[in-house]
Design a protein that fits this description.
Largest sheet of chain B: none
Number of helices of chain A: 16
Shape of chain A: globular
Order of helices and strands of chain A: HHHHHHHHHHHHHHHEEH
Radius of gyration of chain A: 25 Å
Strand order of the largest sheet of chain A: 1-2
Helix content of chain B: over 70%
Strand content of chain B: under 5%
Strand content of chain A: under 5%
Largest interface: A-B, 109 and 121 residues
Distance between the termini of chain B: 27 Å
Helix content of chain A: over 70%
Structural class of chain B: mainly alpha
Order of helices and strands of chain B: HHHHHHHHHHHHHH
Oligomer: heterodimer
Distance between the termini of chain A: 21 Å
Number of strands of chain B: 0
Number of strands of chain A: 2
Number of helices of chain B: 14
Shape of chain B: globular
Structural class of chain A: mainly alpha
Largest sheet of chain A: 2 strands, antiparallel
């Protein structure tokens, strides 16, 4: 493992076999202390959110008690309020609809492009590939103003969730093309050639042989596009002000803050309910995400 | 052979066409439109205003709030990158080691990155809230004596938005570095170690050159995303107190969408274009070198 080799003490350890155990012990203490430190940093705000989401109103405003624990019985009331008195379920539904259609459009755009770039020889193929990768860097902050005008003047989708469905594939497609290129390259050309010898046309070979073999890759890409759609903030904030059309990130952050009044319990409950599933999904493709970036860099 | 090649080329272009057309219409065209807006007096009511040349840019340049926002954008981005680099590097070396429950721990450690930023920023908003004063009560309890009004004073507010941004981003830095580190073939390091190269020498002469491309790409991604993201600042300070924490994307949103001054909003956002272009050029060089 690279981990052992990178370890500063590896050669020293080989030299002084006798102190090996104490060294190992010392190292594992350092590791765990370090990890504990990072766990506290990473989880601290999330823990505060979780505790707050179950706190009774009186407990939250009681400034004399330590803020990280319950001094009155925990309550589910913020969660029930969220479901009964706000449009949380509508927002969550919108997010799912938006992300679903983002995935569909992304796949329709990215699969053929990635196949062409991975397998076919045509002039400027490399330039197209790099060009598409670079478009992933185009920041939404440069585009939200003109897109607002395009979506309201030309297609009249502004203030509906479909505006997001149209725009999100612009940032999911570039990276998905790059990821899929990697997957397609791992499928041996011979498999495809064999299918063509057996009488398939190129298109049939793609549909019947290549795509079924790349299902893990397609799933990764789908999860990636889905979670990106669930996380997006700038476009959703800019395009949608109608409460019924909002995705959950915007619904929670704008409708539960009214002027100066913050519904802290509900805010935190909503943020966690919406955020944790995204985090779990995201974890599924994290390794592939890294692979996609490093493939662009190293291979 | 030649006909076959031509057939393949046509098929290739056909397969590329949907993606290219889509990206052309919704990325390239808006980008050009944005440049047009910035040279006119467009407003959201009158998006195709009349030509005013560089007036928007000269107006901005003489506007103090804008100049502060421009400066803040760089402070915010570079401050955040430094924080993320330090925390991310330490975390990456910790995650290189073998220990039980690594998968679960990693999933927990990357939560700041995987939960949508708009939602976790609400947690920071509560921590910084002047009424509840949560952060100060907690740091007070463990003996830290710095207790400012986090979002109410300019410097603490700037530190606050950077803290939230660093917190959100350090797991990504760690993951990218980790990916680079694990891609270094152990045999090379082993033989270097046998030849007597110490950790620092191995790090400097083998690890850094080998993982440089992925590190650069990761850093460029992060730099561009940090520089152009408005969610943390928008949710925490909205540019306050007294216009001291504006950053470019958030100022462009407030002027362009909320204020309806499309031309000025577009001009502000175009100040981000050079950073994007430079990042692209560097990225291109890395990608080109990979092919040689």
């Amino acid at each position: 493992m690279a981990g052992e080799v990178l370890d500063a003490s590896a050669p020293a350890r080989a030299r002084q076999g006798t102190t090996w155990l104490t060294r190992a012990l010392r190292e594992s203490i350092v590791t765990w202390v370090g990890l504990a430190f990072f766990l506290v940093i990473a989880l601290f705000p999330i823990a505060v959110m979780a505790v707050t989401s179950f706190k009774q109103g009186g407990d939250l405003i009681d400034l004399k008690t330590p803020p990280l624990w319950f001094h009155r019985a925990p309550t589910f009331s913020h969660y029930t309020y969220l479901f009964q008195q706000t449009k949380f379920l509508t927002w969550a539904g919108n997010t799912i609809v938006i992300s679903f259609f983002t995935v569909v459009i992304t796949l329709i755009l990215a699969v053929p492009a990635a196949y062409a770039l991975a397998r076919l020889h045509f002039p400027n193929a490399d330039n197209f590939g790099i060009g598409i990768f670079l478009t992933y860097l185009v920041p939404p902050a440069l585009l939200f103003l003109p897109l607002t005008i395009i979506l309201s003047r030309y297609v009249n989708l502004i203030d509906t969730k479909w505006a997001l469905v149209v725009v999100y594939p612009t940032f999911t497609t570039p990276f998905c093309v790059w990821l899929l290129m990697g997957f397609f390259k791992t499928i041996p050309v011979e498999v495809e050639e064999a299918a063509r010898v057996d009488g398939c046309s190129r298109l049939q070979a793609i549909l019947r042989v290549v795509l079924p073999l790349s299902i893990p890759g397609l799933l990764t890409v789908a999860i990636f596009a889905f979670t990106l759609g669930m996380q997006e903030y700038i476009y959703a904030l800019t395009f949608i002000s109608n409460s019924l059309e909002k995705p959950v990130t915007i619904g929670v952050t704008s409708d539960l803050i009214r002027g100066d009044e913050y519904f802290w319990g509900e805010l935190m409950a909503g943020a966690l309910l919406a955020g944790i599933p995204v985090a779990i999904l995201y974890n599924f493709f994290l390794d592939h995400f890294v692979e996609g970036i490093s493939q662009g860099a190293i291979k | 052979m030649r006909r076959l090649l031509r057939g393949e080329a046509a098929f290739g272009y056909l397969l590329m066409a949907p993606a290219l057309i889509y990206l052309g219409l919704l990325l390239l065209y808006p980008l050009l439109l944005s440049i047009w807006f910035s040279l006119t007096d467009a407003s959201t009511g009158q998006p195709f205003g009349s030509w005013v040349g560089l007036k928007n840019f000269t107006d901005l340049w003489s506007n103090e709030t804008f100049r502060l926002a421009l400066r803040n954008s760089f402070i915010f981005t570079f401050g955040s990158e430094i924080g993320k680099a330090i925390l991310g590097t330490v975390l990456a070396f910790l995650l290189l080691r073998r220990f039980h429950g690594k998968k679960v721990l990693r999933a927990l450690l990357v939560l700041p990155w995987t939960v949508p930023v708009a939602l976790t920023t609400l947690g920071w908003l509560l921590l910084f809230d002047p009424t509840f004063n949560m952060l100060n009560r907690i740091t007070g309890a463990i003996g830290i004596g710095y207790h400012p009004s986090w979002l109410g004073e300019p410097v603490p507010a700037m530190i606050a938005i950077m803290m939230a941004n660093i917190w959100r981003g350090f797991p990504f830095s760690a993951i990218i570095l980790l990916a680079g580190l694990t891609s270094v073939p152990p045999e090379i390091l082993e033989s270097a170690a046998l030849d007597g190269a110490g950790f620092l020498r191995r790090f400097h002469y083998i690890i850094v050159p080998m993982i440089a491309p992925i590190l650069f790409i990761g850093l460029l991604f992060d730099l561009v995303f940090s520089f152009t993201d408005l969610s943390v600042v928008y949710l925490l300070t909205r540019g306050g107190p007294e216009n001291t924490t504006h950053i470019l994307p958030e100022l462009a949103y407030q002027n362009g969408i909320q204020g309806g001054d499309l031309a000025q909003g577009a001009a502000i956002s175009l100040f981000m274009l050079p950073v994007f272009v430079i990042a692209c050029v560097i990225m291109l060089r890395i990608l080109r070198r990979r092919e040689i």
